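Researcher: Next entry in the queue.
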Amino acid sequence: MKITSAIREWLADVRYRRRIRQIALYHQRSGAIAPYAVAAHEIYLRRKLEDFRDFASKRYLDDRSLTLDEIKQEWLDIVVKPMARSEFTRDDAKSLKAAIVAIPNSETFVGEAKKAREADIREAIATAKSGTVYTGRFA
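Model: Structure for this entry, 139 residues:
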């Protein structure tokens, strides 16, 4: 098991360095002054967005009555507002907030939460076709 975990760790490190290199090359070609710093910053923001998607999926599975806007606002209160207070992470907070607000409903949830949301939408459509009023909430 130690050998397998060591190989996985090494492979993850190689993939991470390769991803940094590819992003840095892109930014270098586009004329960035510090392409590796920009690449590391971009990966940091991508990781934060993945954390948001995981958080949104967990919150939706815990309480299906929450709307997507409520989940986004909760994440902004928990993560982004403390980042905005610091002068060092204020720009990151602005970028992260813009990215979270721009995420469409179809790409917010992952895994079981995505399946549950699609089932809720199908149920709402079926109730609308039958002529009854749908009592669930989703936005």
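Model: The chain has six helices and no strands.
Researcher: Noted, moving on.
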